[in-house]
What we know:
Elements: H1 5-33, E1 40-41, E2 44-45, H2 51-54, H3 61-82, H4 86-105, H5 110-124
Antiparallel strand pairs: 1-2
Helix pairs in contact: 1-3, 1-5, 3-4, 4-5
Amino acid sequence: MRNPLFLKVAAILLWLDAVGFGLPCIMAINHIRSGRGILYFMGFPTYGRGPFERYGLQTTVPLLGGFLLVCTLEGLAGWLVWRGRKSGAILSLSLLPAGAVYWWGFALPIPPVFAIPRTLLILLSWSRLK
């Protein structure tokens, strides 16, 4: 089997993170750039009011740009994992520390829920990667 189910599910989880957090990040960047402060989306602050701010790190365009980069690279990793590429698996695993810092700092509870199973699925499929 060229693309086992585990890798497809892992890729979908990567894409959900990339799109689900990347698109609101773009909106948040535009909101902050226009001087309107932190954007609220569905009643929740987009990337603000979390531990970063409690420790004195305000939500800024460069901070959000870094998170957007992580989201974009997760989308790329998803595409590569879907194709069964080891490079996508390595990229996905290498993004975990940076992603975890942003998830914690912005108080995002969902990404770790996706990261744990996708990481396990990738590791379980490691021998099938090319």
